Amino acid sequence: WNKLHGPIQPSEDETIFPELRIIDLSYNEFSGNFPVSLFQHMKAMRTIEQTRKDPRYFGDSYFQDFVTVATKGIELEFVRILTVYTVIDLSNNKFEGCIQSILRDFYCAPGAKFSHNELHGHIPPSLGNLSEAESLDLSFNHLSGEIPRQLA
């Protein structure tokens, strides 16, 4: 665990991490409004490459890399990582904000963890349309209302 803290400043820089697919800032003490603007230019997290027929992997041309990801309580080690694999883990911080405005930009992330923050609002029914989502952890926040039946 790191001891990074404070708010993450908004960014208008369109060149910031455009190819980033895995971001893990969990278990820190980031606070303030959720940094939606930071992620709006990370195009690789927001688009699905449907034109290629064969899978592309990170590290094919230079090196073999690996990452360990915990999803649904299971730790998985990826030795070759598909370029379409996207993970966002911002859990266990003190981020604030309305859940509707945060989630609208993460429609392609198969794994997204926003648990243990200070997020609020209703879970929008439109989340049921996230065909790429495999897991979405919103536990331990200040959400209200019912779980939409589209997610059941």
UniProtKB/TrEMBL annotation:
<keyword id="KW-0812">Transmembrane</keyword>
<keyword id="KW-1133">Transmembrane helix</keyword>
<dbReference type="InterPro" id="IPR032675">
    <property type="entry name" value="LRR_dom_sf"/>
</dbReference>
<keyword id="KW-0675">Receptor</keyword>
<keyword id="KW-0677">Repeat</keyword>
<keyword id="KW-0472">Membrane</keyword>
<comment type="similarity">
    <text>Belongs to the RLP family.</text>
</comment>
<keyword id="KW-1003">Cell membrane</keyword>
<keyword id="KW-0433">Leucine-rich repeat</keyword>
<dbReference type="InterPro" id="IPR001611">
    <property type="entry name" value="Leu-rich_rpt"/>
</dbReference>
<dbReference type="Pfam" id="PF00560">
    <property type="entry name" value="LRR_1"/>
</dbReference>
<dbReference type="GO" id="GO:0005886">
    <property type="term" value="C:plasma membrane"/>
</dbReference>
<keyword id="KW-0325">Glycoprotein</keyword>
<protein>
    <submittedName>
        <fullName>PR-protein</fullName>
    </submittedName>
</protein>
